[in-house]
Amino acid sequence: LVKITGIRFQFARLFWKPMFAGALCAGTAYGVYELLSKFLESNSVKTLAAIAAAGVVYLVAVLFLRGITA
Question: 29, 31, 59, 69: most buried by Cβ count inside 10 Å?
Answer without folding.
Answer: 29
